[in-house]
Write a sequence for this structure.
């Protein structure tokens, strides 16, 4: 099966699914919700569950029904050993805390993994009505409801003036990653954002590095990771190796997302 042909055929339905999930989330956002609390202490809402149902229905109806690992469906369950080498990762409402705090910083995430690598990612920002998507070997774009796709390219930010973007939630120090950057680059600006917005800010050239020493799950990062890799960037572990996606290991190790320029400065080869 040709993945590129499959994604070419599926793209309009995936775009529509993201918009539909985002519209539903915005309706709940305006009306207000009382959250539930998951086993790990993180919040969940009706918006998370209903948006996930929209996305799953569309993915199940595609010509190739790859297995789906979705945040709400797998909450509190043991990791799943998927025999397929290709599977979807969904986070229907990434940034539920930001959603509940009304910071506007939440996203809808769809990612596709093939042989451990995120090969396709779609991140929709409902409040901004901006949809980002990237595919291995095909580059990355941003689009709105008008259907006009704007290609995204690398931003040549000086390595001695890097802009770091971090989570508002994590309390862990990113120093181990800053130490890795120190021989080749220097961070001069610190930004903050919730959810996969951090990957999008790097993709659109408004930030350069996103260190994440704290806890994340594979559905949190897959779509944004695929977006950056499609642009030649990388999401690397503290060891320097790329982040790998395994259906049996749901929690990510600490990582740092990098623009193309920073990844190359650290000795990495372009991935686009």
């Amino acid at each position: 099966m040709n993945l590129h042909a499959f994604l070419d055929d599926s793209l309009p339905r995936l775009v529509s699914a993201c918009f539909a999930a985002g519209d539903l989330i915005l309706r709940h956002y305006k009306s207000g919700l009382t959250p539930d609390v998951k086993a790990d202490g993180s919040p969940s809402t009706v918006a998370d569950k209903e948006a996930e149902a929209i996305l799953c229905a569309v993915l199940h109806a595609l010509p190739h029904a790859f297995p789906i690992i979705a945040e709400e469906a797998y909450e509190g369950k043991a990791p799943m050993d998927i025999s397929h080498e290709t599977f979807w990762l969904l986070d229907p409402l990434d940034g539920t805390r930001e959603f509940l705090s009304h910071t506007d910083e939440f996203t809808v995430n769809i990612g596709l993994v093939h042989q451990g690598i995120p090969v396709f990612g779609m991140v929709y920002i409902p409040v901004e009505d901006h949809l980002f998507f990237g595919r291995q070997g095909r580059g990355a774009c941003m689009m709105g409801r008008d259907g006009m796709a704007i290609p995204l390219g690398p931003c040549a930010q000086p390595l001695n003036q890097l802009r770091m973007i971090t989570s508002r939630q994590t309390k862990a120090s990113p120093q181990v990653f800053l130490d890795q950057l120190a021989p080749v680059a220097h961070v001069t600006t610190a930004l903050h954002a919730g959810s996969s917005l951090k990957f999008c800010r790097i993709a659109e050239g408004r930030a350069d590095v996103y260190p994440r020493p704290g806890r994340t799950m594979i559905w949190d990062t897959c779509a944004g990771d695929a977006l950056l890799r499609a642009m030649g960037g990388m999401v690397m572990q503290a060891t320097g190796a790329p982040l790998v996606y395994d259906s049996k290991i749901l929690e990510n190790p600490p990582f740092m997302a990098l623009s193309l320029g920073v990844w190359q400065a650290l000795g990495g080869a372009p991935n686009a």
